Amino acid sequence: MWHFSRWLLIFIPGLVALTFAQHQAPIYAEGELLIQLRPQAEVTEVTADFTALDLRPVKLLSRRMNIWLMRFDPARADAAAALVQVKQHRQVQLAQFNHHVTRRGAEAVPNDPMFASQWALNNTGQTGGVADADIDAPEAWDIATGGTTASGDEIVVAVIDGGADLNHEDLDYWKNLEEIPNNGIDDDNNGYVDDYDGWNAYNSNGN
């Protein structure tokens, strides 16, 4: 009885691990590759060199960028090995697996209690404005909110703000030349003492 229990303890964890592995969803479509060929390359030139993989074109995804969806026989080669072989071809510029993309859904919306008031991100007309006059932030978050790339690298975004060139022709903001800055006097007699670069019209407090 002791021997039976010992073998049972060995067998059950292995069975659970095998079952878990079998039910894990693959992260890419089996036997499919996304391949960008060099600008003047012909797809037949590439597939002819991979008859051992039975590599064949499925669909031209971008004519301008020469990007193809191709399929190979996964029974003929390990997926990782097939990808390495294709990447090394002289006419291949980029190649990767055809990864599955999943919509993130409601969990992409932040838990910021003030999110509903940020109409610029998602405008439902909640502040009296025009519905959908926004940048569609939740729609963008459905596609990506960071994480890792297809190669497994962590996505890091750095926003570097070097300030603004106020003399640039594209920043032709209003300047009140009738107001002398920082003298505390309403030079143009309009009720504001510091409206040389605009004024606080929202609070109407002269700032």
What does this structure look like?
The chain has 207 residues and is an alpha+beta fold. It has three domains: 27-99, Alpha-Beta Plaits (2-Layer Sandwich); 104-157, no CATH class; 161-207, no CATH class. Helices cover 21% and strands 14% of the residues. It contains four helices and four strands. It has a four-stranded antiparallel β-sheet. Mean pLDDT is 81; it is low at 15-22.
Summarize the structure.
Helices cover 21% and strands 14% of the residues.
CATH class of the largest domain: Alpha Beta
Walk across the major sheet and give the strand order: 2-3-1-4
- What series of H and E elements makes up the topology? HEHEEHEH
Q: Could you name the CATH homologous superfamily of the largest domain?
A: Peptidase S8 propeptide/proteinase inhibitor I9
Which characteristics define this entry?
single chain; 207 residues; alpha+beta; Alpha-Beta Plaits; 3 domains; four-stranded antiparallel β-sheet; 4 helices; 4 strands; 14% strand
